[in-house]
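Case study B.
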Amino acid sequence: MKLPKFLLIAGLLASPLLAQAHEYDAGKIHIDHPWSREMPPSAPNAAAYFVLHNKGNSADRLTSASTPVAEKAELHQHIHQDGLMKMQQVQTVDVPAGGEVQFAPMGYHVMLFGLKQQLKDGERFPLTLHFDKAGDVQVEVAVQKDAPAAEHQH
Ligand SMILES: [Cu+2]
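Model:
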């Protein structure tokens, strides 16, 4: 798992135009590259993605999220049901001890309902994540036109 990170850093040094990786720590929880895809101006909703790593010896869980840029933020996941992909709200997302949970398109995401303004490529907005044990942590979500390159390596 180390190699892709070195490659990513090398890529950043080589090209300042690439979106910058950014990461956060809250207790034993490490939060990697929060991002959101730029949506058309008329889109009422958006989604935020990141990767959670639990470096501790006990499980934690994400219980909710909040942001000033939307009326409401919910934890969602995509599920297959009757041959269709649907998304549904989940109350919590477990982060197992020593494990990681990916929030990514077609999987877990933080759904942002009722955007108060268009989120534009290159901007960042604050998102607060609430964990059972690690507490609250505010991260900056990077708005991008495309999924970060690191997402494709998994
Ligand atoms: Cu959703």
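The chain has one helix and eleven strands. The remaining cases will be described in the next quarterly update.
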